From TrEMBL, chain A:
<feature type="domain" description="ABC transmembrane type-1">
    <location>
        <begin position="108"/>
        <end position="298"/>
    </location>
</feature>
<keyword id="KW-1003">Cell membrane</keyword>
<keyword id="KW-1133">Transmembrane helix</keyword>
<dbReference type="InterPro" id="IPR000515">
    <property type="entry name" value="MetI-like"/>
</dbReference>
<dbReference type="InterPro" id="IPR050901">
    <property type="entry name" value="BP-dep_ABC_trans_perm"/>
</dbReference>
<protein>
    <submittedName>
        <fullName>Carbohydrate ABC transporter permease</fullName>
    </submittedName>
</protein>
<keyword id="KW-0813">Transport</keyword>
<feature type="transmembrane region" description="Helical">
    <location>
        <begin position="112"/>
        <end position="133"/>
    </location>
</feature>
<feature type="transmembrane region" description="Helical">
    <location>
        <begin position="277"/>
        <end position="298"/>
    </location>
</feature>
Automatic annotation (TrEMBL), chain B:
<dbReference type="InterPro" id="IPR003593">
    <property type="entry name" value="AAA+_ATPase"/>
</dbReference>
<feature type="domain" description="ABC transporter">
    <location>
        <begin position="4"/>
        <end position="234"/>
    </location>
</feature>
<keyword id="KW-1278">Translocase</keyword>
<comment type="similarity">
    <text>Belongs to the ABC transporter superfamily.</text>
</comment>
<keyword id="KW-0547">Nucleotide-binding</keyword>
<dbReference type="GO" id="GO:0055052">
    <property type="term" value="C:ATP-binding cassette (ABC) transporter complex, substrate-binding subunit-containing"/>
</dbReference>
<keyword id="KW-1003">Cell membrane</keyword>
<dbReference type="GO" id="GO:0005524">
    <property type="term" value="F:ATP binding"/>
</dbReference>
<keyword id="KW-0813">Transport</keyword>
Length: 313, 365
């Protein structure tokens, strides 16, 4: 006897949906895979036509990414003692010697500091604000919430010039603090709105029970509400991090040295000794990793989080 | 354990008045019911006693101490929520320990106390389970356990059986009452179910539209209603109201209704105008004699008794009579009323007229 269910998909439709998703995933993964592969090609391989899918892997791109090199003449090269590290050997083959480390490490660290710093700050401020909006009677709460949302109605880059001038005046240009504040300002409205939705869903009774059980309101907040909001906090954090991590326009405009993040730095690699695509690809690959790791680490929360708590009751 | 005095308590939410000046006293060890339809202010009153809401004005005394403006953590009152509000990220044991940990109780003592409470409630076996998978009854027991674990001065319960299914409610209400009798703790219990209030309560406060309508024992509330609202709200079917125009004199023992003299308890106040003759269904007798007659509209068989709906000159009336009594639809039957159970009301004010029946009850209402 065959039965028909409205809610339970049939095995055939499940199979169909699964195939479709895998197919879509494969298509979207091609550029990613290409970047990762290019990172392990030699420069000639990277620009060969037709493109090489099978090739002899080389670490040259990564070595070039992390070092600066100078070209030396054949006599000088022969006069040098034999290379004592594998990466020096790679460089020597191109008639160069390592002059020192490149700035990529520093820039990457800047990205980490600024990306995670602003995410952390957005989440802390956003959670507190969302909790207040959710639980307390705030005069003009709706108007304030609208104001917070309205800060995102204009593309942030539209105010780039005023911010540029302001930052120069305040001495915030090219500082970690300046970039953290900027990204936090952009992310905070998203954080407040997303988190308010999550906190609204947490029944007040939990906190009230904690108040009755002898805890202060703040204790009730961080011991009872925060664990409940973990899903929302995790998914909001991912959204904030992705924005701050990938942001390019402000980073180009406001940072050039000490606080420069990886996105404006990676393209500058192109200029060193010709079009060094493997190095660029290596930089992009490394740059992708933190968000990927962060997302995978929080994926359990994220999956439930993007349904905006609709399932949890 | 404690006595709770509510004195002129009022609560406003913006323009909305949730509770108008209310006063009543909950004696030490009482199982006290706050009864009323939804939105009547009973839950707000409970929350004010617990400290989850602060009264706009008025005083609340717990054991003689004024506590109305104190945070809940400084009142030593436990609260059982309707939806249980067990901490979902903790297991049963942690839920029970939580109120003790906040007091800084040493770990060994917490463990011992939790085991003791688990023993009382019969939940030893589920102590290490997460609260998510528990049945309604077990959740209820854990919620109760969290309340009793720190020996508070009083318990507040907000419709604690409301989330349970009907079959289990009965069982749980017995369990609750037994628990109360064993511990002897002052308990304030909010419900909209008059049966539950009558069954479990030592005393009942009936609230309606932010006002305390009546406060007394279940018997007083049932037999001597202070207002038409109470008379109507309590009892199933509720009290019959026979409306008539007439007058009643102070000291009178009968009123004239439709040209017939009806015996009533001796009246202590006189009035005239629109009056209501209130009689409970079980205080109506059917007989072939009797000058006051009604036509049978419907009969409802309930096993040991039956409810007979009659059309009388003063409106519909329900009588609860033995199941064996024969009454056929369309038949005209003579009606008798037990005189000492009758309450007369003034229809305009909705209040009961004072009489020998309800003199003690009305004096403190």
């Amino acid at each position: 006897m065959s039965s028909f269910s409205v809610t339970e998909p049939s095995p055939r439709s499940k199979w169909f949906a699964g195939t479709l998703v895998i197919l879509y995933a494969l298509i979207t993964m091609v550029p990613l895979a290409w970047i990762m592969l290019t990172g392990f090609k030699t420069p000639p391989d990277s620009i060969s036509y037709p493109p090489k899918v099978f090739f002899e892997p080389s670490m040259e791109g990564y070595v070039n990414l992390f070092t600066t090199r100078t070209r030396v003449g054949q006599e000088a090269l022969d006069a040098l003692p034999p290379p004592d590290t594998w990466y020096e050997e790679i460089v020597r083959e191109r008639d160069m010697v390592i002059a020192g480390p490149s700035k990529f490490g520093e820039r990457f660290l800047n990205s980490v500091i600024i990306g995670f710093g602003s995410t952390f700050l957005s989440i802390v401020l956003g959670t507190l604000a969302a909790y207040a909006f959710s639980r307390f009677k705030i005069p003009l709460a709706d108007d304030l919430l609208f104001f917070i949302l309205s800060t995102r109605m204009m593309p942030p880059i539209a105010v780039a010039i005023p911010i540029f001038l302001m930052y120069r005046q305040l001495g915030l240009s090219d500082t970690h603090l300046g970039m953290i504040l900027l990204y936090t300002a952009v992310n905070i409205s998203l954080a407040v709105w997303l988190l308010k939705g999550f906190i609204d869903e947490i029944p007040r009774e939990y906190e009230e029970a904690a108040l009755i059980d002898g805890y202060t309101r703040f204790q009730a907040f961080y011991k009872v509400v925060l664990p409940q909001a973990a899903t929302g906090i995790a998914s909001t954090a991912i959204f904030c991090l992705i924005f701050a991590w990938n942001e390019y326009a402000f980073a180009v405009l406001l940072t050039s040295g000490t606080a420069q993040t990886a996105p404006p730095f990676i393209p500058t690699i192109i200029g060193v000794g010709g079009l060094d695509w493997p190095a660029v690809a290596a930089g992009a690959t490394i740059f992708l990793l933190p968000v990927m790791i962060f997302t995978v680490a929080l994926r359990k929360h994220l999956l439930r989080g993007i349904t905006f708590g609709a399932v949890r009751k | 354990m404690a006595q709770i005095i509510i004195k002129n308590v009022r609560k406003e939410f913006g323009n909305f008045t949730a509770v108008k000046e209310s006063s009543f006293t909950i004696e030490d060890g009482e199982f006290f019911m706050l009864l009323g339809p939804s939105g009547c202010g009973k839950t707000t009153t409970l929350r004010m006693i617990a400290g989850l809401e602060l009264p706009t004005s008025g005083e609340i005394y717990l054991d003689g101490e004024e506590i109305s403006q104190r945070p809940p953590s400084q009142r030593d009152i436990a609260f059982v929520f309707q939806m249980f509000a067990l901490y979902p990220h903790m297991n049963v044991r942690k839920n029970l320990s939580y109120p003790l940990v906040s007091q800084g109780m040493p770990r060994a003592a917490v463990k011992a106390k939790v085991e003791e409470v688990a023993g009382i409630l019969g939940i030893e076996k589920i102590l290490n389970k997460p609260v998510g998978g528990l049945s309604g009854g077990d959740r209820q027991r854990v919620a109760l356990g969290r309340a009793i674990v720190r020996d508070p001065k009083a318990f507040m319960m907000d419709e604690p059986l409301g989330a349970l299914d009907a079959e289990f409610r009965e069982h749980m209400s017995e369990e609750l009452r037994a628990l109360h009798d064993r511990m002897g703790a002052t308990t304030v219990y909010v419900t909209h179910d008059q049966l539950e209030a009558m069954q479990m309560g030592d005393k009942i406060v009936v609230m309606n539209n932010a006002v305390v309508e009546q406060f007394g024992t279940p018997q007083e509330i049932y037999d001597k209603p202070a207002t038409m609202f109470v008379a109507d709200f309590i009892g199933s079917p509720s009290m019959n109201f026979l409306r008539f125009d007439g007058s009643v004199a102070e000291g009178a023992q009968a009123v004239e209704m439709n040209g017939q003299s009806m015996q009533v308890p001796r009246q202590l106040e006189g009035t005239a105008g629109k009056l209501v003759f209130g009689v409970r269904p079980e205080h109506v007798t059917l007989s072939d004699a009797g000058d006051y007659r009604g036509e049978v509209l419907a009969t409802e068989y309930l096993g040991t008794t039956q409810i007979i709906t009659l059309d009388t000159p003063n409106g519909d009336l329900k009588a609860r009579v033995p199941a064996g009594q024969v009454a056929t639809v369309g038949e005209k039957i003579g009606l008798g009323f037990k005189p000492d159970t009758i309450t007369l009301f003034n229809e305009n004010s909705g209040r009961a007229l004072r009489s020998d029946l309800n003199r003690e009850v009305l004096s403190h209402g």
